[in-house]
């Protein structure tokens, strides 16, 4: 069974790999044999994750990039190809959020969240997939969505809209890339202690979340590793594409 999840010889690019959730999934991919490129805007944090992976016997390298900039992503593609010769797994994990009420929302804030959460994912996938197709290299993309993508959450209007877009992009590209041997899936995390949701977690909101989460707790970032490794492995999920895999403590199963 261990062979199903063996990623030895694979290269994984983890965008947002310097964040809480992205770094956890990057470590999980590394522990199953993948060589990992840790990508983020904050190089100090990226280097910390890289050193942790190396200390655990893995192979990793830090890269700086802004996913909302096409020029930055194109340079990133060249740099990672120089480092590893190519890639097999691309995990899109950058994310930003805001609790600004809808009627007070300025377009600058809307654009910033959309640039990171949705446009950046499109830029990244476009650049990395194009090169994979040119090289005839098969592989897969794993996009990080959110429970707010299917049931919009109060106080996070723009975030919810951006993540709904991630689901649509995921399923569209699953069809688009299948003839090239490239799979595209998404993970829908529930509530995890990530940077972008801490700012809106008041006592009242936490109580509301727990009342809507059958497992009655937040997720641990390490609990996303299994989903990431499963989707990354062609042996385990080679016939899985266009899927939206929930890791949400039952949040999506609740009604009243």
Major sheet: size, sense and barrel closure?
7 strands, parallel
The average pLDDT score comes to 93
Strand content: 5-15%
Strand order of the largest sheet: 3-2-1-4-5-6-7
Which ranges are low-confidence, i.e. pLDDT below 50, for 5 or more consecutive residues? none
How would you describe the overall organization of this protein?
This is SDR family oxidoreductase. Pfam families: adh_short_C2. The protein is an alpha/beta fold. The protein is 45% helix and 15% strand. It has helices spanning 20-31, 43-55, 70-84, 107-135, 157-177, 195-198, 203-211, 225-232, 234-237; strands at residues 11-15, 35-40, 60-64, 89-92, 139-144, 182-189, 244-247. Helix 2 links the parallel strand 2 and strand 3. The chain is globular. The chain starts with 10 loop residues before the first strand and ends in a 9-residue tail after the last strand.
